[in-house]
Amino acid sequence: MSEDCIFCKIVAGEIPARKIHEDDEVIAFHDIHPAAPVHFMIVPKAHISSLADAEAAHEGLLGRILLLAPKLARQEGLHTGFRTIINTGRGGGQEVMHLHVHILGGGSLRAM
Ligand code: 5GP
Ligand code: ZN
After folding, report:
1. Nearest ligand to the CA atom of 10
2. pTM for this structure?
3. What residues are annotated to the active site?
């Protein structure tokens, strides 16, 4: 756990969140400021600051997170598809420095 990390605090149960999944390595919860009708994040419980800080030892964890994305998207009613975003670093617009994968959908997302 990294002190002053908001997602570590959510993992520890110190800050409430609308959780939709939890297992030994990963949690998922709705974004507090949704950018689409459905917007949640999949977050490793371990504090990894960003995708740029992930290491070979995290290979399985990263795979687990990506494989969870379509499962949770279906669970949340996104039957026609969803968008997956990982913001990395200042240049990537990352605001919370704890790796997370955004899943968005439920509206008409514009092509990128
Ligand atoms: P980033 O820009 O780092 O990729 O995304 C961080 C996301 O975390 C933002 O979409 C923001 O709305 C969300 N967020 C920030 N603080 C909280 C919080 O305390 N609870 C929840 N559920 N989401 C948060
Ligand atoms: Zn953290």
Report:
1. 1
2. 0.96
3. 100
Q: What is the pLDDT of residues 61-100, one digit of tens each?
A: 999 999 999 999 999 999 999 999 999 999 999 999 999 9
Which residue range(s) make up the domain with 74?
6-105
Question: Would you say the CB of residue 1 lies under 6 angstroms from ligand 1?
Answer: no
Q: Which DSSP string do the residues of 22-91 spell out, in sequence order?
A: E-SSEEEEE-SS-SSSEEEEEEESS----GGG--GGGHHHHHHHHHHHHHHHHHTT--S--EEE---TGG
Q: Please name the residue that has the structure tokens 């977050």.
A: 43
In eight-state DSSP terms, residue 92 is G
26 lines ligand 1 (CB under 6 A): no
Looking at the structure of the chain, the number of domains it has is 1
Residue 108, exposed/middle/buried by CB under 10 A (0-12, 13-18, 19+)? exposed
Question: Looking at the domain assignment, is residue 111 inside a domain?
Answer: no
